[in-house]
Amino acid sequence: MQHGLSDRGLHRDGAGRRRHHFPHLERTAIGTIVKGGTVVTATDTFRADILIEDGTIAAIAHAIPAAGHTTVDASGALVFPGFIDPHTHLDMPFGGTTTIDDFASGTVAAALGGTTTIIDFALHTKGDSLANALKTWHAKAAGKAAIDYAFHLTIADGRPETLEEIPEMIAREGVNSFKVFMAYKHVLQVDDETIFKVLKAAARYGGLVQVHAENGDVIEVTVKEALSAGQTAPKYHGLTRPVELEAEATSRAIRLAEVAGAPLYVVHVSSAMAADAISDGRKRGLPIYGETCPQYLVCDASDYDRPDFAGANYVMSPPLREKRDQAVLLKKLKNGELHAFGSDHCSFNNCGQKELGKNDFSKIPNGAPTIEDRVAILFEHGVVKGVIGLNQLVALASTNPAKLFGLFPRKGTIAVGSDADIVVWDPGAERTISAATHHMKADNNIFEGMTVHGRPRFVLSRGRIIADDGRFTGEPGTGIHQKSAPFRPVQL
Ligand SMILES: [Zn+2]
Question: Using CA atoms, how far apart are residues 130 and 455, in angstroms rounded to an integer?
């Protein structure tokens, strides 16, 4: 496999920067050609050139003549549809602080990792309107996002006014998914009555309900017990949220969806036991979808024991589980029992942010910086290790999220008419992940020191090159909001 860039049609200027060298042709150029690569979609793998015009894919053919077009060299590389991260939290307030990455830094880091669309959670607060929550998040993203973005809405209360807004959010605002929390009592958690009402409203109008499945009532008790026993270290975050409480909530949510006749998407499945609950629901023929995240494949509960409060960097909910859970989650990704791969990027510095919980694990802001390395982790631990194929990688990290969240086929595939969101991926490149070199703002990286193969050579967003050999070449503010079409059940 060829690693470096071919210099055909390119030369380096004095600053060492590669430039296209077709000045007389560029004036009349009508498009861009991604040339000489192996195109990989969720279903097919084939050698082809891709012609891009006006930001969309105009032709896919074996050998498109280069004349007149700007050429992007994909020789020796894999050509993926831009990856879609269905689960991000940028510029989000949490536990008295705010995530360190906003829509500018977060989307630049995403782009450098091969992600060309994110779906971020607009956070509803009790008593406020959904419209206002969405407006707040539009303001956070506009002028900052370097890649395209869509929104999910969280739902914090089941007031009639809130439920009545759901059809309008779907039909007019392009939000097709609504997330409810079964945990974070007194903050985000809603009761079963609310979950049931949201499920029914969403199902009726073309919405998909997402659920954070952990039993928040019981967790409140276990956390209080631990703290009153003087157990304040990060590892008690994990110990107070046992796997049974995730499995119970997952089963309960699935049963509620079953009674409501609604589809359901379970976010950030962390354990074998919870994933089994999803498999059981699907065996009953229910439209249940499961998502997992890179951290649950490669980090585990022993990370909470890291010295010097570094264990706090791994505090997230659900917490990290055991090594045996990692293997089961990977197998379920392979077998089609889990369907989407999100980052759950929610980044905080250790210094000044995670430290809020220095003497009380329950005050450690939950989350980790994962938006940049999501695809690399799945490529390494899925594809390179031989567990999943390239087509499955694309399905899990791009096509399935696009289908579930109403962006397909504009996003999530390489097809004529689709947006030219394209990743030219060098499969043989090798790098070591580190907070010292990553592009996220956080002062820590939970994958620190891990070696991964594969990295983007070029990333294109609607035909523009936004990442070139590890350098961001796009522009914050050029990302465009994408409306999601209403949810329709899909066979995944
Ligand atoms: Zn999340």
Answer: 38
